[in-house]
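Exercise: predict the fold of this chain.
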Amino acid sequence: METPKQRPRILIVDESRLVRTQFIQLIRDHYDFREEVDGEGGWQALVIDPSIQLVISALSMSMPVLDGDGLLARLRSSRLARLRQIPVLMIAGDDEAANARARALGASDFIVGSIGASELLARIDSVLRLAQAQNELRENPERDAQHPDTGLPTRQRVEVQAAQAMSYALRHESPVSILIMGFDRFDALRNEHGEDLVKELHKRFASMLATKVRKEDSLGHYSGSDLAVVSPGTPYPACEAFANRLREAFAVANIAVHGKRLNLSVSVGVANTPVDRLNSASSLLTLAAQRLKTAQEAGGNRVVACSDRSSSRQPAPRLGHAIDLIKAGHESAVIPHLLQLGNEVLPFLELLERELKLGLPLAELRKRTRDREH
């Protein structure tokens, strides 16, 4: 008789019984759990219970023993690799300094106390997948490094590359953008033309992308036919402009089968830090994937990006973004961004161009500004 597979166990550390009960209710149908009231109890549980695969901990606790920061610091400095590498989700508070301290100590991701079940389960799944990928690559760095159809890195590699880019970005306060893109109406395409043709289209799609990403970008598989680009140092307007160029390039590509041109399109989901205020690679990848799904459900052949959000957290346009775009080699994205700044900034831009020779397309900017005013 086959032994049932043991579910992953999650340790919940919080001095509030109400908070612990709340999280237990959200995860109990999917994960085993253990609860502790303070960091010291959490540490002892982790030492003696190797079945624990993830920790959910309060950011700071008023207990006179070990608080959340102390538990995180002790884990990350442990001599046991199992404890040093265990993913930790911190329950974020309103104290930004405390959040930054936990991030520097090595928190895997942050969640809010009012998080819903679906989002929490998605965060846990992403963090556990990333931890598994990192462990497998540490044990066997050459295994499953490339996808057999395209030769691109597998999802495991992409997740690790995204984590490395995010770690660097948090240390140096630089942006990271992630694009996840895929064919629209993929199932219908496969049903109509067959698996072999779809694989060939996938290879062409991957080849086209490989010629367009920068050397410092990472291109690989995400899920099914969806591909991901991890783009360190790219501000959100540049990444959105790049996504639209990829979408447009594929839309006009002349791909034919038996002499008949296929009506193909792709959609792209874009996520960016710091715009999306996420602190982990797994949450950034998940958000980009959700935006891809939103784009496809809205009819496809579109990009859903950070700037599509109506949230009050969306940053106001500023000249720094325009300069970032130029430095990143995305001059074509400068005009729509600068247009948001209004006509009053034109004299300053003209002075900036005379002094620094940035290559700002001032003539076209003046024309578009006039068109908007009329």
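Check your answer against the key: Confidence is low (pLDDT under 50) at residues 308-318.
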